[in-house]
Amino acid sequence: MSFSTQLPLLLFFSSLFIHISLGEVVCEDLPTEACAFSIASSGKRCLLETSRAEDGGGVEYQCRTSEVVVERMMGDYIETDECVEACGVDRKFVGISSDAFLEPQFSDKLCSPPCYQKCPNIVDLYFNLAAGEGVLLPELCEKQRMNPGRAMFELLSSGAAAPAPLSGFSEDIKSASAPAPL
């Protein structure tokens, strides 16, 4: 082979190497096991979707880029297994819902120091979900620490839930105190 025929091939493989070495995250390129709780280079969250298998016999999982932009600059981020475990979330979540807050075990794990203080991506996601329900996550975590069985119920039924914040997690969390260690 002459150099002129090898050059395009060399350039192609070099571009792949540069793409990989720069660590660019493209949701559609992620394996489904790493999709949930990841953030693409564009700053948009990755989400796991299901579709009917082409053979019609089952369900296939696909990683897609959502339209949700993470306000904190966390692009090129794939959540660690340690945070997934510490926060009590599942990488096979398809569609994340605020209903999880109604489960005391979930809120307990989310508000625990290993999650709340060390896993900003997951906390940011659930901070925004809670805010959509009119609840501030730091308040929920404080109530969870004081009375785990009734934390979310009290906030929702008493009408004491705070209005949704105007800005994102990063600014609101600075002004709110972190939950005390359990």
Précis, in short:
The protein is an alpha+beta fold. The protein is 43% helix and 11% strand. Strand 1 and strand 2 (59-69) form a beta hairpin.
Number of domains: 2
Percent of residues in helices comes to: 40-55%
Output the helix-strand order: HHEEHHHHHHH
Number of helices: 9
- Shape label: globular
Cross-sheet strand order for the largest sheet = 1-2
* C-alpha-based Rg, rounded: 20 Å
Strand count: 2
Q: Mind describing the biggest β-sheet?
A: 2 strands, antiparallel
**Mean pLDDT, all residues:** 75
Strand content: 5-15%
Structural class: alpha+beta
What characteristics describe this protein?
11% strand; PAR1; PAR1 protein; alpha+beta; 182 residues; two-stranded antiparallel sheet; signal; 43% helix; 2 domains; globular
Report on this model:
With 182 residues, this protein is α+β, with helices and mostly antiparallel strands. It has two domains: 20-78, no CATH class; 81-175, no CATH class. It is built from nine helices and two strands. A hairpin with a 6-residue loop joins β1 (44-52) and β2.
